[in-house]
Each structure stands twice: as C-alpha cells, then as structure tokens.
Amino acid sequence: MGGDRAPDMVADGAEIARQKFAAARFLFVGDEARLRPLLDRHPDLARVSELRHTTEVVTNDAKPSAALRGGRQSSMRLAINAVQAGEAHAVISAGNTGALMAMAKLVLKTAPGIDRPAIAGFFPTMRGSSVMLDLGANVECDARNLVQFAIMGEVFARTVLGLARPTIGLLNVGSEDQKGHEELRTASSVLRTNGLNLAFHGFVEGSDIAAGTTDVIVTDGFTGNIAIKTAEGTSRLFSSFLRQAFSSSPRAKLGYVLAKPALDGFRQRIDPRRYNGAILLGLNGIAVKSHGGTDAIGFANALGVAVDMLANGITARIQEELQHLGGDPDAAPNPRTAAV
Amino acid sequence: MGGDRAPDMVADGAEIARQKFAAARFLFVGDEARLRPLLDRHPDLARVSELRHTTEVVTNDAKPSAALRGGRQSSMRLAINAVQAGEAHAVISAGNTGALMAMAKLVLKTAPGIDRPAIAGFFPTMRGSSVMLDLGANVECDARNLVQFAIMGEVFARTVLGLARPTIGLLNVGSEDQKGHEELRTASSVLRTNGLNLAFHGFVEGSDIAAGTTDVIVTDGFTGNIAIKTAEGTSRLFSSFLRQAFSSSPRAKLGYVLAKPALDGFRQRIDPRRYNGAILLGLNGIAVKSHGGTDAIGFANALGVAVDMLANGITARIQEELQHLGGDPDAAPNPRTAAV
Predict the structure, then answer these.
(1) Is A230 within 8 Å of B209 when comparing Cβ atoms?
(2) Are B3 and B94 spatial neighbours (Cβ–Cβ below 8 Å)?
C-alpha cells in the first residue's frame, strides 16, 4: 500500500515483472477492496497471485518506533511476517523506509556476523553501475560497521551486478591515508590488511561516485544519504536546464526533434526507474525498498532486484564471506560508540 | 604559482579582471623568470601590477603542517603575508587548499567571535545561486561551529550574492526535528530560538541543494566536501552521456548543430568556471581559493569574488552579525569535542 501511486503501480509493476519472470508468484498485502479490482484488470497476474487483506497501513510520516508499536496489522508488517514464515521469499515495499528497516530487523532479525543491516542502492556511472551503502539506515557508523558494509556490498556487486571482482572504495574527503574521520582510517586498515581477499581500492571522493572509480562505495548512512540525494538533485537540475534550453527557440526545438531518438537513449541511461530498488542488506531474508515516487516500470525493476538476489542466494553468500573476517572481534576495533 | 595551468592562466585571468575592475591593482608573487614574460604579454596589466620574486612553491600534495613549517618563502605564504601587512586587500590562490587555509589562519588569524574559519562555495540551483559551507576545512564540527557558519554564509549571500534576506538550511538526512546527528539538532534549536534574526528554514536534504530550497546550506566540512564533489561528478557524468548521445548518429549530430546556440547557453549556466572561487570565511582578511583545474576565465571569476567581498566589506559585516549572537557562551553549547 506504500508509494505515491500505490496500490495501482504496485499491481501494474507486478504484471510487468510477471511477464519477465515466468516462475514468480505474488502475495499482495493490503486493502482487498482496492487490490481486488486491480488484479481483476490483470487476469494472468491474478492466477499467480494471492491476496491478504488488511486495512492498516504505515504512513510515510510515521516514526519507525511508532510503526513498530502500532503497526502490527499493517500491510508492511504482514508482508514482512510472510517472509519470516516462509510464505514469501522476499518483501518489496514502496512505503516508509525507516519503518520497513525497523520492522524487517525486528521480524527477520539481523544476519549472524552483522551488527547492523544497511541500505544499498545502485546507480549509473561512467563505467557502468556502482553500488553504494549505507544510504541512510545508520546515521552513525563505526569501523566495524563499515567493514561489514564493504563485505555485503562486494557480495551484492558480485552476485546481482555480475561483476567478477568488484573493487571497493571508502568514501572520504581525500585519498590520502590521514584524511577523514578516525573510523574511516580504522576501517581502511582492516580492509587492507586482513585476509578478506577484497579488491579494496582505498579512499574515494564524492566525484568518484559518478566516475565509477570503484564498483562499491562504502560510507555511513548520513553521508551516503546526503550523497545519493545530492546526485539526484543535481541530475534533476541538469535535466531541467536542458529542457529549458531545448524549448528556448524554434531552432532549438527543431534540433530537439532531430536528436530525440538519441536523447531518448540518453534519458534511459539516467532513468531513475532503472536504478529503483534500495536493498536492505544484512537481514535473514530479502527486503527491497522501492522509491515511493516510482511508477509501474520502476516498481517492476525493484521486484527484479529481489528476484536477482534470490536467484543468486545473496544471503548465504554474505555469510560465506563473513567467515573470512574470522572470529576475532578485535579485527575491527570499535573506536567510537555509535548511537541509533 | 598554484593550479594546473599556472602561472599562465593566473596572468591571463588577471588581465580579464583588469578590464572588468578598472581600479584593481595586482601583486604577483612567484618566480620572476616565469612571471615577467607573462606580464610583458599584457602591458596594460603590467602597468597596474607589481611582481614579488620567490622560487619556493607549495606543492599540491604537501601536507598543511609541512607547508607551514617549510613554506615560509613560498609564493602562497608571501601572498598571504602581503594581505597581513596591508600591501594587498585579498589573496587569491589556485594552489593547495589545505595549505592555504592553514597559512591564512596562522598569518591573518581567525576573526573575533569565530572558532573556526570555513570554506564556502556557490553554485547554480533551480532558483538561482546558493552558497554552501563548510566545504572541507573542518572535518568535525560542533553545533557552535555550525551556527557561526550559518551567520557567515548569510552575510556572504547578502553582500556578495546580493540577496535581501537569504534563507538558511542545515544539511541533514531528513527534515524532521529528530533526524541526524546531535550537533545538528542543537544548532537547529540555536538558529531557531535566539535573537539572530536569520531566515532559518530548518533542515534540508541533499536534493535541496540543487533545488535551491534555501540560499545558504550549512554543513560540516566532511559532508559538504562529499556533497559538492558528488554534485560535480554527477554533472560531469550527465555531460558525458549527453555528448555521447549527440554523437551517436548523423541525425543526432544535425540536431546538435541546430540546438547549439541554446545548448551553449545551457552549458554556460552550469559552467564550473562561473562558480569558481571558494571563499575562506572567518579570517581577518580576504582569501579566495580558485579551483586548481580552472583556466583564465575561471581565475578571473575568483578574482571577481574577492573584489565583491572587498567592495561589500564582508569581514566587518560578519563581525556586526556576530554581535547578535551575544556574549553568552552557552547560547551555542558545545556537545561534542571536535578534533582537528
């Protein structure tokens, strides 16, 4: 029930995903009075779908703590419960991110060896696609969290993006060793020295994100959230200026018409719907957060991310990689107590 | 002597600025053997210029501490000394940012009422231009620093950008009161409640930077540095994809030719040279950092920023505003000891 155009875009997105993933089955959780007519519109989808009725929803402005307490019969909570009960392989929501993370942590539990789950996202770069985490689940992170994020991000890039040996960068204000916060320097030395066998590049800067200097960018949830939203805002500004330029004269308009097929390709390359689907990594189960403002195409892509994660057994693979970190809790010292 | 194309672009940039600012006079500090021929190329500039010879330079990879110790006869240091001695009104450098800030702090001293100077920059938005600070001088900031940055940024936006009543936003991961780090929440309550008479908007997110939601964006130097570089990287990615689209077919190329005048206007709007000139705010004197990679046009713009600051008496105006903060040191409590 979450998202600006829900539940319509959820059902329409599921129909697109159904055509792409023949084996997929769907469990819709929400208000039957609103969902049933949508499924009636898509009889092929209805045949592979189940509907679980509830009228409760988590609103977008609900605090995570309030959603945990008061939202036990919400569509979001029941969808997560279904994953925990083995009735669904993954939960996909376009609703309240904080509530989704809080409920998923409570119900699915954090995976063994992970202190805190993170939100990962992927986006276009000069060299292809990169994945960045954390995008906002943990405002304060210590070195140990960052090292775990690096491992989870690497597995994600390997399994879902299909990269053979993804490179990893730690987001910082400079590439020199002495730069930035203490926890970054500690995380860097752990990633560099222990037996993780990661392709750790070292520190990267904000400009390296879009440059695609590394396949994985690791950062705390505060910085990651600012960075991803700054990139989105810049991209919107650029698009807006470009639109204004093309409509500024008859000649520019004609130029636009001629260049339109090429510009459509350009637009597709940067289309946020292609990169829709923030992944909650580090849980005992698969949870994907779709952008709230997306449409059916974007929601279908978020569903596709969940299918990819499932097909590649990402949860088990992260566990394998964590073994390499070893049981030594001092491997990644905890220099600063983190606050939730 | 600093910058990728220095000293040529410095002399060429000064010539552009000379034509714009009839009363300007220039003091070039650096290697006479290289600077003299450049001035000979511009006889009108040479007439209003003085040359101070030194062969020492601060390299781009020098640590600030090393530059302070070993760079006493460097061109950067002598230029700053000239401001301190009253021989120049402002120093403009395209060299090592960290060294420039460290030397400027040592020589010019931090202004009364300011705990730490900050680096401010301005850039295009949907609504015009905004200024953001700190862009990297202070990796860790407390609430008191952030409040001072807000005051300095507001005066800058008022005097140099010419805005009557600039609005101020604190960069955070959400607009709700309980979001983000402790120091942000404290700074927000100080900016909201005391007698500063600022148009404080509240928290803003990364996407608000390019949207131009507020005229001034206040943040710590770590986050600000990541944000500005992420925006630069995204802008480069966008430009690169656009170039590729326009050269992807003969038809797209023809469209480009027709739309070129409009696209040139678009390019000018986002031209980083227009927004060249990061300002070191909070010193007893005017210091401007030009982007190292800029050309003569960009360097001339950095010179223009210094002229604007001077013409508007920004240093005195910041002092006036600080009076409103009052002498109460508890007005902006210091919840977290900051590390340099």
Answers:
(1) yes
(2) yes
Tell me how far apart the alpha carbons of residues A153 and A159 are, in angstroms, rounded to a whole number: 10
Torsion of CA A192, A330, B336, B319, to 10 degrees: -20
A204, closest residue in chain B (CA to CA):
B226
Whether B255 and A255 lie within 8 Å, measured CB to CB:
yes
B259 to A239, A252, B236, B262: CA distances (angstroms):
15, 4, 20, 5
Taking the domain A118-273+318-331, which CATH number applies?
A: 3.40.718.10
Q: Residue B334 is encoded by which pair of tokens? A: 């210091």
Which ipTM score applies to this complex? 0.89
**Cα–Cα distance measured from residue B327 to residue A245, given in angstroms and rounded to the nearest whole number:** 51
Cβ distance of A234 and B234 shorter than 8 Å: yes
Q: What is the pTM of this model?
A: 0.90
3-state secondary structure of A163: coil
For B22-50, write each residue's pLDDT tens digit: 999 999 999 999 999 999 999 999 999 99
* Nearest chain B residue (CA) to A62: B176
B204 contact residues in A (CB cutoff 8 A): none
Asked if residues A54 and A7 have their Cβ atoms less than 8 Å apart, the reply is: no
Domains in chain B: boundaries: 8-108, 118-273+318-331
Rounded CA separation A135/B230 (Å) = 14
- Measure in Å the smallest separation between the Cα of B281 and chain A Cα atoms: 20
Residue with tokens 């714009």: B20
Instruction: Give the distance between the most distant pair of CA atoms in chain B.
Output: 68
Contacts of B246 in chain A (CB under 8 A): 259, 262
Residue in chain B closest to A135 (alpha carbons) equals B173
